[in-house]
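Second opinion, please. Please look over this fold, written as C-alpha cells:

===
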Amino acid sequence: MKREFLKELGLEDDVIGKIMKEHGKSIQKLDDAIETYRGKISDLQTDIATKDKAYEDLNKELTVSKAKVEDFEKLDVEGLKKSVQDWENKYNEREYDLSVDKYMQGYKFTSDLAKEATISKFKEQKFKLKDGKLDGAEDFMKKFIEENKSAFVVEGEGNNNASNGISNGPAPYKYVPAGGSSAEDIKDFESMLDSMI
C-alpha cells in the first residue's frame, strides 16, 4: 500500500499515517509467521536427514553381515539362523522406532521429559506395525491426551482438534524398505542354508 494512493482518495495525512502504521504491523506479523514456518521446515528436514542416515547405516550393517555369511562354506546353521533372527529383530525394532518417531512429530509437548515419558508409555503398548501403520495408536493417544493434558501444548483456535487444542498427529507413517530385507528374502536365505546341510 502506498501513501500516494491514499492521498488520491482524499484522506488526511494523520489518517494516512495511522493506516500505514497498521498496515506495517500486519506485514510484520506475516513476516514473523513466515520465519517461524521456515524454522519448522528446516527442523523437519534436519530430522528426516538424520533418520535417513541412521537407516542407511543399519542397512549397510545388514549388507555386511550377509556378505560375511556367504564367505563361509561350512556353517553353524543354528548359530547362523540365530544371527539372522537377531538382525531381523534389530531391523524390525529400528523400523518400529522410526514409525513411532514419525508419528510423534504431530504432537507438541510441554517439555522434553513429557515427550520422553509419552513415547515410553506409547512404546509399552507394543502396537503392531501393519502396512506401515501403528495399529491402535490413535485410540491410545486420544485417551492418553485426556488423562495427561499437562504434558501437551494447547494451541489456539483453528486447530485440528478444537475440543482440546491438540493436534491428532500426522497421517499414519508408512515405511517401505529399499529392499533386501523382506520376510521373503529371509525365508529364501534360510532355505538356502537348509539345502547346504
